[in-house]
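[Discussion] Sanity-checking designs against the backbone

I'm trying to build intuition for which residues belong where. Below is a structure token string of 274 positions. I'd appreciate it if someone posts a full sequence so I can compare it with mine line by line.
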């Protein structure tokens, strides 16, 4: 399961390899808002050249491309150019499921970045071409004049629900816009984790380890989960579906399922020793 995605502007090809070596699970070459209109053709050509030249190697980051808005000719031309080469495409400013009918080729991730997009989240998430959804919080905050994090939490939860109801993977958090505020990034990731979000897109390589730390179960959480799994296995051998731990905590099927996920995640995100 991916935890970190790193954006790199399509007109900075000298940074593509740095992004791939950053430790991010996925690199997103951006052709949209990080690129000024005058450089968009060049950015698309850079993305195509990079994708054609890359060699799949063990441990290599996957490469996604954020194309321009599919409601524009430029977005459709981006899709035509990179759709068969990228591991996935990210579609900005999706506001209705209808626009997704144009998608072919790589799996598509829909970005909900406007009031209309949030309102249509359920139908967008349920579209068969959609492999996942995420928010675009900078665009949302600008459109809705949001300055209170609690307001953003309401929007996040709507997308979390739409994704879960459609059977999509958990929703990753949107970019944290200050590349020097690591404490703020960590606190924000922990808050998003509490809303059921998982993983985060980054805009700078230094954000990657902070995001991994935030979504890695703590040693205490991992130990508690392992204890639950062991108790469940003992209960199963005794023919019991529900038991209480010595400290009074109740354990049944959904609690065990969650604990198993935590154990697996702790192992997947374990820091290398030394
Ligand atoms: C934010 C940046 C413009 C900062 O760039 P800069 O000031 O040049 O960074 P540094 O001097 O700290 O760079 C240090 C070294 O790190 C490399 N670097 C920096 N950023 C990246 C990157 N993204 N990928 C790869 N490598 C990177 C530099 O090359 C330096 O390396 P070295 O010279 O060897 O020391 C910049 O980080 C940046 O452009 N970030 C990405 C911006 C972007 O793509 N934005 C689009 C996504 S945002 C979004 O999606 C919002 C959403 O739509 C919404 O609505 O919410
Ligand atoms: Mg945006």
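Best answer:
Here's mine. Compare freely.
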């Amino acid at each position: 399961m991916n935890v970190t995605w790193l954006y790199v502007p399509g007109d900075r090809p000298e940074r593509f390899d740095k992004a791939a070596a950053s430790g991010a699970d996925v690199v997103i070459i951006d052709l949209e808002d990080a690129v000024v209109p005058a450089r968009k053709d060049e950015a698309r050509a850079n993305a195509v050249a990079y994708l054609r030249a890359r060699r799949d190697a063990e441990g290599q980051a996957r490469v996604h491309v954020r194309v321009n808005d599919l409601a524009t000719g430029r977005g459709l031309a981006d899709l035509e150019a990179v759709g068969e080469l990228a591991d996935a495409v990210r579609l900005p400013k999706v506001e209705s499921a209808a626009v997704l009918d144009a998608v072919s080729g790589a799996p598509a991730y829909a970005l909900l970045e406007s009031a209309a997009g949030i309102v249509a989240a359920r139908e967008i998430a349920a579209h068969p071409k959609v492999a996942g959804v995420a928010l675009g919080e900078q665009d949302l905050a600008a459109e809705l004049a949001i300055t209170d994090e609690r307001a953003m939490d309401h929007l996040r939860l709507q997308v979390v629900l739409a994704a879960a109801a459609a059977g999509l993977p958990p929703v990753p958090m949107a970019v944290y816009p200050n590349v020097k505020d690591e404490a703020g990034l960590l606190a924000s990731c922990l808050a998003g984790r509490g809303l059921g979000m998982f993983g985060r897109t980054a805009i700078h390589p230094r954000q990657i380890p902070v995001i991994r730390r935030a979504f890695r179960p703590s040693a205490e959480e991992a130990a508690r989960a392992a204890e639950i799994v062991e108790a469940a296995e003992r209960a199963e051998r005794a023919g019991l579906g529900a038991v209480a731990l010595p400290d009074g905590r109740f354990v049944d099927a959904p609690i065990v399922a969650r604990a198993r996920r935590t154990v697996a995640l702790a192992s997947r995100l374990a820091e290398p020793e030394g």
